Amino acid sequence: MKSNLSALAALVALGGAATLARADDAPAAAAPAAAPASPIAYNIGLVSDYRYRGISQSRLNPALQGGIDYTGASGAYLGTWLSTISWIKDGGTIAGVDSGKTPAEWDLYGGLRGNLTKDLSYDVGGLYYLYVGNKFGNIGSAAANANTFEIYGALTYGIFTAKYSQSLTNLFGVADSKNSGYVDLTANIDLGNGVSLTPELAHQSVTHFSNGSYTLVSLTLGKDFGNGFSISAQAISTDAKKIGGVPVYMSPAGKNLAASTLVVGAKYTF
Prior knowledge:
Elements: H1 2-10, H2 25-28, E1 40-47, E2 51-52, E3 55-56, E4 63-71, E5 76-84, H3 87-95, E6 104-115, E7 120-130, E8 148-157, E9 160-167, E10 181-187, E11 189-192, E12 195-205, E13 214-226, E14 229-238, E15 242-243, E16 246-247, E17 261-269
Antiparallel strand pairs: 1-4, 1-17, 2-3, 4-5, 5-6, 6-7, 7-8, 8-9, 9-10, 10-12, 11-12, 12-13, 13-14, 14-17, 15-16
């Protein structure tokens, strides 16, 4: 029973950046300190599946997303972002308890971006994932409140970015998982005419729950049409484990939420 609870506690909470407007994507790519023409930007997007670090947060269904960002002249930034989700409620459904009906993830983040040299830039900050009204701890001793706080740091040299995130709280509802880490390596390749290609290699480690740890690879093709509108298609694959033939990251219908997939999306920034 303990191993089943451990698998359940990790359920759908972890994953790879497969959205076009993910709050934690903005800090991931370091940028010059100069402020944009307008310090405030808004975005709204739709994705065929909200995959965060490779794991579906929306039960393999589409998700609506949007956020607001403020960037100062010094490179300091603040932002908030929301996405529809299913995993909080789904965890309780599988366990047969009330884990809350939280329909959305609400992110609050801030940090500082700047240049160390002409070719080397940095990005440091913190990100709080808020799941209002979640009762994920009701699932059992292997579960905890799903709210999570991470700090992160990234370095970008040319087209390459290396980023590390570490949780200062339990990680997405997994009990005794403080100091879990996520390493993310990406390259942003400009193909011209607003088209970009972004390969990614990443690893999520979950403290005291090795069955929840995994590696992911992805490849994203994006197209910027100008005037704030862009689309993307991302192929994602993970090596997330199974326990007794049951996926660690599983939907109420028994589907593997970490299975290889193609996610498409569109975003408008204004």
